[in-house]
Each structure stands twice: as structure tokens, then as C-alpha cells.
Design brief:
InterPro entries: MoaE_sf (IPR036563), Mopterin_biosynth_MoaE (IPR003448). Pfam families: MoaE. This is Molybdenum cofactor biosynthesis protein MoaE. Helix content is 28%, strand content 42%. With 142 residues, the chain is of the alpha+beta class. It has one domain: Aldehyde Oxidoreductase, domain 3, CATH 3.90.1170. A hairpin with a 4-residue loop joins strand 8 and strand 9 (136-139).
């Protein structure tokens, strides 16, 4: 059963919308809402990134839901939201949006930090980076 604080969880090919995530956590009881937006940057270490693709295992959505539920159970949050993009992305595109809301900012900050860190560690979504020098690499793949 889904924890009632989990408001939005998805893995999708369409561009991500920060306002959708914010709206999903809108409530009058929350004094703090912490939002993290991960974007495709133009470099990785010393190499210039030309673009990348994200691939997800079929279990990625279920695993993302479990991560959101764990965050909700470990923190006194009113809302949890996480959306990750898959497919081909360009520099500047939004790859992931996570947010939590709570009565107090400290709780929302801690919960959001746990959410993005656990997502990156446990949800099977892999990044295929392409560099301007013609090389490429997989990040986060088993």
C-alpha cells in the first residue's frame, strides 16, 4: 500500500515540469518545501558533454516508489514527489525532480537529501554520456 505522503512518482520520456511537482505537494500545513532539480550539465570531470541518454530497468518505477515510501516513513513529511526522465536529453534538460514538504524546513531538507541520494543509489536508471571528443561512458550501470 502506498504511503499517503507519496504524492507523485514517475519515470517518463516526456520533459519534466517543476510546476507539476510543486503543485503535487501544495498544502496549507507545510511550512517548508525543498525542491531539487537535476539537469544535464555541459561537462563531466575534464570532458565536455554533448548529450546523454537515460535507460531504466522495468522495475525502476516500483523501486522509485519504494524509495519515496521509505523517505515518508523515516521523516515527518506531508508530501514526497520524485520524477525521473528517460530517453535522450541535451545539455540543460531536466533529468530528475524530487521534492518533499513538511511543517518545518529542517525536516524537508533532510528528507529531500535522503530522497535524491537514495534514488541515485538504488533506482535502476543508467546514464549513457556522450562527449564532444567522440568518447562515451555508462554511469551507474551494473
Amino acid at each position: 500500500m502506498t504511503h499517503t505522503a507519496v504524492r507523485l512518482v514517475d519515470v517518463r520520456e516526456e520533459p519534466l515540469d517543476v510546476t507539476e511537482v510543486l503543485a503535487s505537494l501544495d498544502d496549507d500545513a507545510s511550512g517548508g518545501l525543498v525542491l531539487f532539480v537535476g539537469r544535464v550539465r555541459d561537462h563531466d570531470d575534464e570532458k565536455e558533454v554533448s548529450g546523454l541518454g537515460y535507460s531504466a530497468h522495468p522495475s525502476a518505477l516500483e523501486r522509485l516508489l519504494r524509495v519515496c515510501e521509505a523517505v515518508a516513513e523515516q521523516h515527518e513529511v506531508h508530501g514526497v514527489a520524485a520524477v525521473h526522465r528517460v530517453g535522450e536529453l541535451e545539455v540543460g534538460d531536466i533529468a530528475v525532480v524530487v521534492a518533499t514538504s513538511s511543517a518545518h524546513r529542517a525536516t524537508a531538507f533532510a528528507a529531500s537529501r535522503m530522497l535524491i541520494d537514495t534514488l541515485k543509489a538504488e533506482v535502476p536508471i543508467w546514464k549513457h554520456q556522450r562527449f564532444n571528443d567522440g568518447t562515451e561512458e555508462w554511469v551507474g550501470s551494473p
